[in-house]
Design goal:
Endonuclease, Chain A, 4-stranded mixed beta sheet, 6 helices, about 50% helix, 2 domains, alpha+beta, 4 strands, about 170 residues
C-alpha cells in the first residue's frame, strides 16, 4: 500500500505536480480549466515519475527504516543527517551486525557511532573485525551527535581518507 505522506515527500512527484499545474495553465481558458485530457496527462506524468522514483533509485539495495522509526537517539541523528544529504543507507546491515550501525550505499562504507563509553579494547576488536571483513568503517565520535556541521565534517574527512586508500 502506498503511503500518501511518502508519496508527497518525493521530489519527483512534486515535480510532476508542478508539470501538471503548468499543463493546466497552458491549456486553460476561462471555461475549460480541467478537461479530461489535461487530467489524464497529469495522472500519467505523476504516475510515471513515481514509478521512476521507485524503480530507478537503487531499489536493489534493501530500503532501511526512515529516521523517525529509529529508536536510538544517536542512530536517529545520524540517519537524519544521511536523509538530509540524500545519502541512501541501510540501518543495521546484516552483514556487519556487530561492527556498524549503518551501511551507506552511495559510498560503499559502513558507519559506526563511536561513543565515549566504549573502551579501547572494544574499539580495537571492532577495527580488527572491519579489517578482517575488508570493509571501510567511518567512526562517528560522540561530539558530533547533535551538531550536523560537526557530523558532516567528521563524515566528509573520513570519507576523503578512505577515497585516497581505494
Amino acid at each position: 500500500m502506498v503511503n500518501i505522506d511518502d508519496l508527497l515527500e518525493s521530489k519527483k512527484v512534486k515535480a510532476g505536480i508542478f508539470i501538471l499545474l503548468g499543463i493546466i495553465l497552458i491549456n486553460s481558458d476561462q471555461s475549460k480549466v480541467l478537461t479530461p485530457e489535461v487530467v489524464g496527462w497529469g495522472i500519467i506524468v505523476i504516475s510515471g515519475l513515481w514509478l521512476l522514483g521507485n524503480f530507478m533509485d537503487g531499489r536493489d539495495v534493501k530500503k532501511s527504516l526512515k529516521s523517525n522509526q529509529i529508536k536510538i537517539p544517536e542512530d536517529k541523528f545520524i540517519a537524519e543527517y544521511f536523509e538530509k544529504n540524500n545519502h541512501r543507507y541501510v540501518y543495521q546491515p546484516k552483514d556487519c551486525k556487530n561492527i556498524a550501525e549503518f551501511y551507506v550505499t552511495d559510498f560503499d562504507v559502513y558507519v559506526k557511532y563511536w561513543n565515549s563509553q566504549m573502551n579501547e579494547h572494544d574499539k580495537k576488536i571492532i577495527d580488527k573485525k572491519a579489517k578482517k571483513q575488508d570493509i571501510y568503517l567511518i567512526k562517528i565520535p560522540q561530539y558530533c551527535i547533535g551538531d550536523f556541521m560537526k557530523l558532516h565534517g567528521s563524515f566528509s574527512n573520513q570519507l576523503a581518507r578512505i577515497a585516497k586508500r581505494r
